[in-house]
Specification:
Blueprint lengths: L3 E7 L6 H11 L7 E7 L6 H11 L3 E7 L5 H11 L4 E4 L8 H13 L5 E6 L6 H17 L8 E8 H9 L7 H7 L4 E6 L13 H15 L2 H31 L6 H34 L6 E5 L3
Parallel strand pairs: 1-2, 1-4, 2-3, 5-7
Antiparallel strand pairs: 3-8, 4-6, 5-6
Helix pairs in contact: 9-10
């Protein structure tokens, strides 16, 4: 029986496939149990697939390769990996070697020695990012923890090792719009957190631009709290109340002090302000409705165009 499964999402990582394999094999050199590699090619546009096929054919290890029909995103790749992983312990790790495979051995050791712990999650104690990006992430965790019933640990990553029962629980959450950090927190179980140092990426570029991170943060907020809908309601009530007070103020100005009612400029400003607030509120509602609409279509989270398994 396979004891440890590695889930490795790959998107345009042709230069890192063999480097990751060699580094992981080095980390595993002293283990005496069976393990497997589950590579998910997320619709790569370079030679990632050919590198994975070469790795599969040239090595005697247990290696699975699933190829997506197009790019479905890392969340879909994680979900796919959980389906194909067969190990007693499962670890999610990036192929770019920014997450050192040596740490996986430490996490497995923690799980082995502590039967009450179900998951070991790594977090970045020191971030190699700009101050602005760090501030944005801190703000995100602060907001989502304030408004969501699910607790999000500051800096917790997808770099985690867990028991099979957690994988089965996460697979039961088959929602289309996925936010894995939140899903792993939502399913519960006893999670132990350890810090790790992020290594420098030597080959390739990060696939997470500022815009993608912002979009991912919005996904997380909408997936795990309905507070934005309440904000839209509160904004509408506040605008209506403010407009009522202002109308009373203008009425008394005209009635008792014969002051001319402000004209064109004030009218345009108020129309633009209220119109903007209305569109903002409609946009928030639209985001939730859009997710309901897509979910009701029951489209698959991913489509596999090719699957290579070991004997």
């Amino acid at each position: 029986m396979v004891k440890l499964s590695f889930i490795i999402p790959c998107y345009n990582e042709e230069e890192n496939i063999f480097r990751f394999y060699d580094a992981t094999k080095q980390a595993l050199k002293n283990v005496d149990y069976e393990y497997e590699f589950v590579f998910i090619d997320d619709g790569s546009e370079d030679d990632t697939l050919s590198q994975l096929k070469e790795l599969h054919s040239s090595k005697s290890d247990k290696i699975k390769v699933a190829r997506f029909s197009r790019n479905f995103g890392k969340e879909a790749a994680i979900f796919c990996g959980l389906k194909y992983a067969s190990g007693e312990y499962i670890t999610m790790i990036d192929v770019d070697l920014q997450q050192n495979p040596e740490i996986v051995m430490k996490k497995v050791e923690i799980l082995e020695k502590n039967k009450e712990i179900d998951c070991v999650c790594a977090y970045q104690e020191i971030r190699k990012e700009s101050r602005f990006k760090t501030l944005c992430k801190k703000t995100f965790y602060s907001l989502i923890n304030r408004f969501s019933e699910t607790e999000f640990v500051q800096g917790a990553s997808d770099f985690r090792t867990f028991r099979r029962k957690i994988a089965l629980a996460v697979l039961n959450v088959d929602e289309y719009h996925r936010f894995s950090k939140g899903i792993f927190s939502w399913v519960g179980f006893n999670t132990h957190y350890i810090s790790y140092k992020v290594e420098n990426r030597e080959y390739g570029d990060s696939k997470w631009s500022g815009f993608k991170l912002f979009k991912y943060a919005i996904e997380g907020i909408i997936s795990f709290t309905t507070v934005p809908l309440k904000v839209a309601t509160a904004t509408g009530l506040f605008s209506a109340f403010t407009a009522l007070l202002y109308s009373i103020f203008v009425f008394f100005q005209k009635l008792f002090y014969s002051i001319e009612i402000p004209g064109y400029a004030t009218l345009v400003i108020l129309i633009l302000l209220l119109g903007g607030l209305q569109l903002f509120s409609i946009g928030i509602v639209g985001e939730y409705i859009a997710r309901i609409y897509i979910q009701t279509k029951k489209r698959p989270i991913y489509i596999t165009s090719e699957l290579i398994e070991y004997e």
